[in-house]
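Q: what sequence does this backbone want?
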């Protein structure tokens, strides 16, 4: 669901703006407040992007640990190496669009 919302966030925002014009209610008004607040709106987009970027890796790691009879230490060593690279170099911003970077 987070992947879908991330991909269609602007469409959802526009949809609720139109709904507000046609037939508003408390839920729609609350959503419009969130969409209109730059800080909340930005946080939601950052959280969704984070989930989209890192969820596949998390699922892959989770699937690995659910399997039996696989060599554990090479996997853990690889994960530690990736963590070391992340700590040394920081996070790459290439996966974020310009709106989130701003």
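A:
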């Amino acid at each position: 669901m987070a992947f879908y919302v991330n991909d269609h966030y602007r469409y959802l925002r526009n949809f609720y703006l139109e709904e507000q014009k046609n037939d508003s209610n408390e839920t729609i008004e609350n959503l419009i407040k969130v969409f209109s607040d730059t800080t909340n709106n930005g946080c939601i987009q950052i959280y969704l992007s984070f989930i989209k970027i890192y969820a596949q890796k998390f699922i892959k790691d989770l699937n690995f640990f659910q399997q039996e009879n696989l060599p554990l230490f090479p996997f853990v060593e690889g994960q530690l190496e990736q963590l070391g690279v992340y700590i040394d170099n920081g996070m790459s911003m290439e996966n974020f669009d310009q709106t989130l970077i701003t």
